[in-house]
Amino acid sequence: MTPKRATARRIRAPKHDPDQALLDAIENIVSSAATAGHINHLRSHGFSDAYIIASLLAGATTLIRGMPNKAPWSGLLEQMAKEVSGE
Q1: d(CA 28, CA 8)
Q2: pLDDT tens for residues 20-40?
Q3: What is the pLDDT of residue 76?
C-alpha cells in the first residue's frame, strides 16, 4: 500500500468582482461630475479660483485627517504640489 501524500494548500486570491468594478467606476464618474458642477457653481457666484482651491484642499485635509493611514494621501498631495510648482 502506498503512503498518502499531503497536497499543497492553495492560497486563494480574492476574486475580482466585475459588478464592484462597475460600481466603483460609476461612483468615480458621478463624484467627478459633482465636483466639476460644484466648481462651476462657485465660479458662477463670483468666487475666485484661489478661494475654490483653498476650500477644496481644506475639505480634503479634513477627510485625510480622519483616515487611519494618512501616508499615501499625504504623499499624493506632496507629489501634486511638486508638479504644480514645476519641480
Answers
A1: 41
A2: 888 888 888 888 898 999 999
A3: 86
The residue among 62, 79, 82 whose CA lies nearest residue 70 is 62
* Secondary structure of the chain in HEC code, one letter for each residue: CCCCCCCCCCCCCCCCCHHHHHHHHHHHHHHHHHHHHHHHHHHHCCCCHHHHHHHHHHHHHHHHHCCCCCHHHHHHHHHHHHHHHCC
- Asked if 62 contacts 54 with a C-beta cutoff of 8 angstroms, the reply is no
Confidence (pTM): 0.58
Torsion (CA) 67, 68, 73, 77 in degrees, nearest 10? 70
- Residue 76 C-alpha cell reads as 499624493
